[in-house]
Amino acid sequence: MIAPVTPGAAKATSTPPGGPTLGKQEFLKLLITQLRNQDPMNPLDQNQFLSQTAQFTSLENLQNIVAELAEMKALTQHQSVAQGAALLGRTATASARQVAVGPGGAELPVTVTATGGVRVDVVDAAGTVVRSLLTESLTPGTHAVAWDGLDVTGVPVAPGSYHYRVTSQGGAAVAAQGTLTAMTPTSGGIVYHLGDARVRAGDLITVG
Q1: CB contact at 8 A, 34 and 43
Q2: Residue ranges of the domains in the chain?
Q3: For the segment 46-56, what is each residue's pLDDT rounded down to a tens digit?
Q4: What DSSP assignment string belongs to 139-161?
Q5: How many other β-carbons are positioned within 10 Å of the β-carbon of residue 67?
Q6: To the nearest 5 percent, what fractions of the chain are helix, strand and coil?
Q7: What is the pTM of this model?
């Protein structure tokens, strides 16, 4: 039985929405052209020149920072993939896994190692718990916890991919176990293939 539970920027740097951005080379060319074509009788004010020079320096520094952050992100991703690959072929258990939900709900596999009740929390892509299920005492083995596809208010959830977490007293239940056979890097991190399940790196609780 299951129970639910900066307005001061120079005009030359502004561009229409969706238009091309002004890079440092274009900014420098614009500044040089302005100096070449200034009125000798009314030259460019020194303060205005210093202000534009400061804007150019700020633009260059910001672009350098963006480039460095992109390099750091790429390096971190490569390191994460390398570390993840080192786990392939090992046995593991996971406290959560992905599940595809259709109009009629889904069956949520749970593996129990000691007799007891189990709590299953289904979460959406935003990490919000859409439904919690409590089971009566389950015996050791693999069970399918039925979810009717309804959220906490009794409204059907949109079909798609969800995540569910398994908890029990003493940690006697897991969502998946087996051998890590493959992995897929995604924008949200690495997704492992654990037996027939798809689990995130943060879902792993033991790795042999």
Answers
A1: no
A2: 11-85, 91-207
A3: 566 567 667 76
A4: -SEEEEEEE-SB-TTSPBPPSEE
A5: 10
A6: 30, 40, 30
A7: 0.60
